[in-house]
Amino acid sequence: MNYIIQLTAVFQLIMKDSRLNPTHVSLYMALFQLWNITRFAQVFYVNRQEVMQLSKIGSKSTYHRCLKDLNNWKYIEYLPSHNIYKGSEVRMPIFGTTSVQQQANNETTTELVLVSNTNSIKQKENNNKPKLPKSKIEVIDFFKSKKWPALEAMKFFNHYQAIGWKHGGKIKIVDWMASASNWMIKAKEIETLKEQSHFKDNLRTTKTKDYDEPL
Question: What domains appear along the chain, each with residue ranges and CATH number?
Answer without folding.
Answer: 3-91 (1.10.10), 136-203 (no CATH)
